[in-house]
Sequence to fold (120 residues):
Amino acid sequence: MFSEKDFERLWFLYKAEGEPNGVSINSFCIGNNIPYTAFYDWFKKTQKKSRQLDEMIARLDEIGKDLKESNRKIDSLTNALLKANSKVEKAAIEYKLRDKEYKKLEKKYNALLERLSTTE
Fold:
């Protein structure tokens, strides 16, 4: 019985030594005393998992891109909202200042009217 590690080592060695020298995987398995059919079964199962993993990674990449785009939109909207809020706050402050000035002028006007009415 061969373990997962045995097959992984064989595959690594094959990629490093066998394939570059033109040795078939079947011959490489025989040369390393591992039945090709056992290796092939392991390889099919591993490749299926690998494909599923690749698909999941691709989907996660898409989700990541979508999130980045959403974050950019949120940042843009947040900045626009902050600018709008600062304009509203600025307008409110200007209004308060003008209102204060108006009230001061109104007091002066009323005081002046009162003085004028008492002098008549």
